[in-house]
Every structure is written in C-alpha cells, then in structure tokens.
Amino acid sequence: MVFAWLFLVPGAILSARFLHHRNQREPLELFGIQLWFQIHRLANSLAFLFVIISFLCIYSALDGFWIGPRFSNRSEQNFSTQSLHAFFGILSIFICLFQPICAIFRCSPESPKRFIFNWIHSILGYIAWICSAIAISLACLKFEQFFIDSFLARDVLIASLVLTFISFFSLQWFSLKRRERFELFEEENERQRQRRNTSSLWQINLPKEYNIRNINQSTNNNTNQHLRPPPQLMAMAPSECSDVGGHRESLMIQQAIIGLFFVASAVLSLCLAITLMLA
Question: Which residues form the Cytochrome b561 domain (predicted)?
Fold first, then answer.
C-alpha cells in the first residue's frame, strides 16, 4: 500500500498532468506512444496490482472482519482512529478498482464528450490519493505497534507528503509560466499575420503609375524592382520557433522535477515500507 500510494500513484498523476503538452510539436515518445501515457499507464497498473495484493493480505489477516464504521456502532467507535483508517482505506481501494474500468470504456480523444471522462478520471484520482494519504497518516500516528520505529515512520511520511506537494506546486508554477509564454507567442503571431495581410494589399495603395497594367512591357525588369513590397513589410514573416512559445527549457525543468520526484519518493516509500516489514 505504501509503495503504491506514495510512489506510483503520485508519479502517475504528475506525469499525466505535467508531461502531457498539447502544444508541444515533438512530444517525447516510447515505443511509438507518448512518454507521459506510458508512465501513467505503467505506474497505475503496478499500483493497481500492489493495492489488490495488499488488500487481500489485510483481508486475510483480519479474517474478513470489517473494523470500519457501522450503523450499529456508537459515534465514538465510528470516529475512532481505527475506524477512520479503514473507511478512508477502503474508499481509496474502491476508487482504485473503478479507475481502470472507467479508462477501458473511455471515449476516443476526438470525441466532444472526452472532457467529461478527463474531469471524472482526474477528480477521482485526486480523491483516491488524498484518502490514501489520510489512511497512511492515521496508521503512522496511531498504530505505533506496527512499526519498528514509529517516529522514523512519521518523519518519512511527512517528508514524502512534503515532497509530493512541493513537486506538484512547482510543476504547476512552471506550467502556468509556460502557458503565459505560449499565449504571448500566439498574440505576437497573430499580430504578424495581420501585418502580412496588410503587406499583401500594398499594391492597391500604390499610385496608378505603379500599376503593372499601365507600365510598358519594355521596362518590365525595372518595374519588377519598383513593385516589390517595402523592406519593412517583407521582414514581417512569423518567426520560426523550434518549440511553440519558446518554452523548451521549461519543459526540460518539469521533466527533471518529475524524474527527481520518482527517485526521492521511491526511496522514502521503501524506507516507510521497511519500517513496517521489520516490526
């Protein structure tokens, strides 16, 4: 559970949100499929497998007994740490089971209703991770007997959550900056298009003696020189840019942050898992 929810699921969320750039001309690919989707699918598939295995182990250890909230229990029992841990844990597991089913029956990317799936899939993913983070936090705070060092487990959990939030908000900041640069780039391109359209009409505003129909054929060579657009209009072609908006550096920084997140979160989640296994 720890490895799935603190390493794989956050990595899948970050890759889908910040490595998927619709305006990128040459997106990174792996085996002919965009890299963000490969990471997202692989991480979620492994997380799904680990969650199922962990759930079966917990179910077997408790002999199938439900320790979460019940209508027959008193409010003190339903709001106990053990009960809340079970509630948030099972809620995250249910969402984890629903997400791949929802993804299998999703509509095509060209469908006008695709945004509905995107929003539902994203919101449920965030809810599942938040519920799992609450469940793991309750376990680290109240179930000291299951850890070899409860204080170390808390410190590792806090570091993992802080790492996730810092990575998310820093990536979000870079994403907003990149979007601003892209919008400025589009505005500049639009202004240049309007200038080019104006330059295409330069002959209409020329005096009649510059009209090619009124010029003698014998002076055709000289006429062609006079009929050229002014240099300032010829220089108004749109600038060629290898990457839309000139934000390649921002993309590289985002990719580096996600890579560092994967490495650091893997180490932290393994440390937390070890404190559980050695207890």
Answer: 1-177
Question: Residue 63 pLDDT > 50, yes or no?
Answer: yes
Among 102, 12, 96, 119, smallest CA distance to 49 is for 96
Q: How far apart are CA 34 and CA 29, in angstroms?
A: 4
pLDDT tens by residue, 233-273: 333 333 334 444 445 666 677 777 777 877 887 787 777 77
Residue 175 Ramachandran class (φ > 0 left, ψ -120 to 50 alpha, else beta): alpha
Q: Which residue has the tokens 């609450």?
A: 134
DSSP H stretches of helix in the chain: 2-3, 9-18, 35-61, 75-78, 81-104, 114-142, 150-199, 220-226, 231-234, 248-277
Separation between Cα atoms, residue 80 and residue 223, nearest integer Å: 92
Q: What is the pTM of this model?
A: 0.71
CA 96-129-79 angle, to 5 degrees, is: 95
DSSP code for 33: E
Q: Report CA 279 to chain centroid distance, whole Å.
A: 36
Residues 213, 216: Cα–Cα separation, whole Å = 8
Helix, strand or coil for residue 29? strand
> Which CATH code fits 2-175+248-277?
1.20.120
